[in-house]
Amino acid sequence: MSTHLPGNGIDDTPVNEADLIEYFHAGAKSAPAWRVGGEFEKFAVARDTGRQLGFDDGIEHVLHSLATHAAWEPHYEAGRLTTLTRGGSTISVEPGGQLELSTPPTARLSELRAELDTHLRELRAVTDPAKVAWIACGVAPVSSVDEIRLNPRPRHRLMAEYLPTRSPTALHMMKATASTQVTFDYADEADAGRKFGAALALSPVVNAMFANSPMHAGKRTEFVSFRGHVWHNMDADRCGLLTELLAGEVTFARWVQLVLDVPLLLLTDGESLRPAPGVTFRAFLNRGIEGRFPTRHDWDVHLSTMFTEARLKRFLEVRGADATPTPLALAVPAIWKGLLYDADAVAAATVLARGFRREELRPLSEAASHHGLRAEYRGKSFADWCRELVAIADSGLKRQGEDASYLDPLRELIAAGRSPGDLWPLGGSVREVLAACEYPHE
Prior knowledge:
Layout: H1 17-25, E1 36-46, H2 55-69, E2 73-77, E3 80-86, E4 89-93, E5 99-102, H3 109-125, E6 132-135, H4 154-162, H5 170-176, E7 179-184, H6 189-208, E8 215-216, E9 219-220, H7 226-232, E10 239-240, H8 252-260, E11 266-269, E12 272-275, H9 281-287, H10 296-303, E13 307-308, E14 310-312, E15 316-322, H11 328-340, H12 343-353, H13 361-371, E16 376-377, E17 380-381, H14 382-399, H15 408-416, H16 430-437
Parallel strand pairs: 10-13
Antiparallel strand pairs: 1-5, 1-6, 1-7, 2-3, 3-4, 4-5, 7-15, 8-9, 11-12, 14-15, 16-17
Helix pairs in contact: 6-12, 6-13, 7-13, 11-14, 12-14, 14-15
């Protein structure tokens, strides 16, 4: 989830529709400047019970300890410490106390790995490993949504008021899910469109390799990725696979038209946030609200409330993988970097993506959530489809001079025909469940 820190210097110049399209053109970068960013969400849980530690149960204390002992700069909202920054990295707290590391954009996968490894070392240094386990999975395995308290961030409080009016699983999404997300650059509009379209069309199959949430509230679910099920029932205005966008060439203008018709989730009022008055961004643009018309900052905030499987800002963000521990977590940026940052790989991935009809993407995504790599499409298991994608990504990484061994955890899953969520000891003890999703110790 995006973090917007209070700060001065917000441009209050009103924008028009042409400005909104130009916003994306301004994000273009030449290939030598392309970078990859990672967002790694995780839960802190009590080692003896598996219960999720929320903001008031210890997460704010963890942030204070990191600020004190690891030279992170603290940032406060509503008088509470919610975000840390250091260099280009950010640690932020999600609605239920999940902790997210957002890395700076990096040229190499090894740099992402170093960032994540350092983050995990620092977390363990400020928590008692005998009492706290840091786990990565798509959904909180033991705590129920009702047991997880919402953190005090104003943005999340507003979301918790609005989203449940649009979705029966909104609070599950906010308080009890975690993911691995990755960001990528683009050269121009055509390149952005190719990458955006491929990411949307291939996400259901790729996500099956990371399906890692078979248990919630202490019970086995019917899904390998219960997180996927939660998202399938989210606010249709701002979530999903954007099959309408895939009906033709993916362009900045078509993306803008789609986003303009999404209702505002919240409004900025100076440096604070307040509930939106139930209108779309298009109405805000054309008629204003209380005499005020939108600025680029309003557009930034509105884009951050688009929770689609992939979304375009001044970079492309791919968002659909369940959180997984290392080394599998690093396979998320690896496979997408292999597929999206090499011209031959993008072309091959696009050809493969055309085999998945846009009207079938929702059923494909549901099948991935239910069955993971055991799901089938056109007589082939998802494991077989993923084997082709991993081969394309492998070649793409090697042509970039990258280490393709980051894909090895995926090869192992594909060979077994099982997603990580298939490997949990369901019905086992809390200790056994946590062992299935805890970050490995060095």
